[in-house]
Design brief:
Structural class: alpha/beta
Mean pLDDT: 94
CATH topology of the domain at 9-68 and 96-179: Rossmann fold
Strand content: 15-25%
CATH class of the domain at 9-68 and 96-179: Alpha Beta
């Protein structure tokens, strides 16, 4: 059944997999429109070139395939890690932070090609529909958005396969046989696993599920030490070798994965209201978080660090819920970035069987650590310990007043 409200051109976020391939054909049939495909390489570790071949097979004339790995890490992952962002105490936001970049490029392509709509393959139950669409509306207020999962009746894998067969859409053998027993999302920051057998929150994932990390039990029996160099809160070198943002994260993923670092099994609260169980591998990000906090511990003022920690949960929720392009996120980001001017130096870490331990940190230009004051030895008058008595009495004043008013027990 064709739609009455006319769409001329639509930009589809296209992976080349079963879902988006069916969506491509469905858009052509139902909306009778030209479909432009956009495939982003953000380090998912899979070939993106086959997406071009499949799109051509389905009659697509304008195909965009772009390597966005450097932009992804430089403009999205690194700014997020300057804030030490963690959602609900554990999740490092690997899926969440990729969505605004994809939405941004979709809108840029829509403007470039004169498209009047964009489309995505996110379901009506998840967070990604919110993230894609909030990003799109923030950048192109009048854009039309087509979310097939909220419109069609192809609500099972069997129906999708039947539609693909009917319309001559090639289907990967693994998809036809059932493939992985869960849904996966991957980029340069992480891999996530959801659905299928993981929908029982009491089910321990099989060892074979994990793709980029060794189990801690099988990780090397000897610790490895690495040194990360920082400039303005971002990692610029590993073991003295200068690297680009994407190279940094790629290298940390390799090292962390080898040592079994970054596995997470989490029940989280989705923005749409339900709880969801997900498993994640974020080896490089786990190392980055530990190292950045160590660098800040040496170079940030106490109250600046406390303010950042107060803002972090809100900042993390903004990213998780899809508000990357909101004025409040940009305002918080400007404060965070201002705080990072003096976060310069290096951090030394010990990696061993799933653990990351900070063993050293140094900043020749911006360290606030003064050994002449903090020493347990004779400080030669640098700190007058007698001053502490007045400090404590003044801070205890309200407690003493309240205690006098209380009746004796």
């Amino acid at each position: 059944m064709k739609k009455s409200n006319k769409i001329n051109k639509v930009v589809l976020a296209y992976s080349g997999g079963l879902d988006t391939s069916v969506i491509l054909k469905w858009l052509q049939d139902v909306y009778d429109c030209e479909v432009i495909t956009f495939t982003a390489d953000i380090g998912q570790g899979e070939e993106v070139a086959p997406a071009r071949k499949k799109a051509k097979l389905l009659g697509v004339k304008q195909i965009f395939i772009e390597d966005l790995r450097e932009e992804f890490v430089r403009d999205y992952v690194f700014p997020m890690f300057r804030a030490n962002a963690v959602y609900e105490g554990e999740y490092l936001l690997g899926t969440s932070i990729a969505r605004p970049l994809i939405a941004k490029r979709m809108i840029e392509i829509a403007r470039k090609t004169g498209a009047d709509a964009v489309s995505h393959g996110a379901t009506g139950k998840g967070n990604d529909q919110v993230r894609f669409e909030l990003g799109a509306y923030a950048l192109m207020p009048d854009v039309k958005i087509i979310a097939p999962w909220r419109e069609w009746d192809l609500l099972s894998r069997e129906k999708l396969l039947a539609y693909a067969d009917k319309n001559g859409i090639p289907v990967d053998y693994k998809k036809r046989k059932g493939g992985a027993p869960y849904s996966m999302d991957a980029n340069l920051l992480h891999i996530s696993y959801e659905g299928g057998i993981l929908e029982d929150p009491n089910f321990e994932p099989e060892v074979s599920m994990w793709r980029i990390t060794n189990s801690p039990e099988k990780a090397p029996g000897r610790a490895e030490y690495i040194e990360l160099g920082y400039r303005h809160g971002d990692i610029v070198s590993i073991n003295g070798k200068a690297l680009s943002p994407a190279q940094v994260l790629t290298k940390l993923n390799q090292i962390g994965g080898k040592h079994g670092i970054g596995r997470l099994d989490l029940v989280e609260n989705r923005y749409v209201g339900m709880k969801s169980r997900g498993c994640y591998e974020t080896p490089g990000g786990t190392i980055m978080l530990r190292a950045h906090r160590a660098m800040e511990s040496l170079t940030l003022d106490r109250e600046v660090l406390a303010l950042k920690d107060d803002l972090m949960p809100r900042y993390a929720r903004l990213i998780y819920n899809g508000y990357w392009f909101s004025p409040e996120r940009e305002l918080i980001q400007s404060l965070i970035d201002q705080s990072q001017r003096n976060v310069n130096g290096s951090v030394r870490l010990k990696l061993y069987k799933g653990t990351v331990t900070t063993v050293g940190r140094v900043s020749k230009s911006d360290s606030l650590f003064d050994a002449t004051i903090s020493t347990f030895e004779d400080d030669k008058g640098a700190y007058n310990q007698a001053d502490a008595a007045g400090f404590i009495r003044l801070n205890a004043l309200r407690l003493r007043i309240a205690a006098r008013r209380r009746k004796p027990r």
